[in-house]
Specification:
Layout lengths: L2 E5 L2 E4 L4 E8 L7 E7 L6 E6 L6 E3 L7 E5 L5 E6 L8 E8 L13 E2 L3 E6 L1
Amino acid sequence: QVQLVESGGGLVQAGGSLRLSCAASGRTLSSYTMGWFRQAPGKEREFVATINWSGHSTDYLDSVKGRFTISRGNAKNTVYLQMNSLKPEDTAVYYCAAAGAYGLLYAEREYAYWGQGTQVTVSS
C-alpha cells in the first residue's frame, strides 16, 4: 500500500511560481510511475504531468509544457511539480498519483494510489 501526501499549494498571483511536493509513506517511489492531475471547479479531473520510474522520461499536458516540470527527489520517496508562469486557468486542486508501472501513464484509471489533493489558486 502506498500513501501519498501532497503539499505546497496556495494562493499566488499570475506569473508567479509554486512547487508542489508529493511524499510517500511506507515505501519509496522508485519503482512507480508517478503523475500529477488537477481538477478545477465544475470540471473533470485532467492529466497534468507524468514521470517514469527512472525519472528520465516525462510528459505534460500541452497547456503546461514549458511552464511546469515534474521531477523525482533524491530521497526516492518524493515527487515534485515545479509550476512557473502560473495563470488563472491553472487554478485547481492538484493530485499526485502512483502506479506500479515503469512507463509514462496518462489516464486516471491506470493509477492505483492517490493523494488527497492540494489547492492551487492563481489570482489575476
